[in-house]
Write a structure and sequence with these properties.
This protein is α/β, with parallel strands linked by helices and about 130 residues long. The protein is built from 5 helices and 4 strands, in the order ββαβαααβα. Helix content is about 45%, strand content about 15%. Helix 1 links the parallel strand 2 and strand 3. The longest helix is centred in the C-terminal third of the chain and has 17 residues. About 25% of the residues are buried.
């Protein structure tokens, strides 16, 4: 088993970049409003790990739909394994920060993606 510490952080893309962020990856399908690519200081933009437009619209940040959103999102990620593998490779290298544009800090796709990736990593270890 690899003893390297796995660290996935979550942060709004509008917040200032820090050295502690490690590999900075935007995990939204849409580019954040009012933000230049230069000021975002991204290492990658992974639109293909973001929820589908249909799922995003269905969810609409409704807290009562959170659990079902995570299930549907996980199913989308399961059906699209290549970009998930790419994220897993970066996470295994060191600190990764999932960046998102939403004003909703707790119930957003970056939080759901972090849970999904951590589950995948736990599953590898078992």
């Amino acid at each position: 088993m690899n003893s390297k510490q796995i660290t996935i952080r979550i942060k709004r893309v509008y917040d200032a970049a820090e050295d502690a962020d490690g590999f900075r990856v935007l995990v939204d399908r849409l580019w954040p409003r009012g933000l230049s690519k230069q000021s975002a200081k991204l290492d990658a933009w992974k639109k293909d790990v973001a929820p589908s437009t249909e799922l995003r619209h269905w969810y609409g940040h409704d807290p009562e739909k959170w659990s079902e959103f995570k299930s549907r999102y996980a199913a989308e990620l399961d059906a699209n394994p290549e970009p998930v593998k790419q994220i897993l490779q970066e996470v295994r290298k060191g600190v990764v920060t999932f960046l998102f544009g939403s004003k909703e800090l707790q119930l957003n796709n970056a939080v759901a993606l972090k849970e999904y990736i951590e589950f995948m990593l736990r599953d590898e270890v078992l």
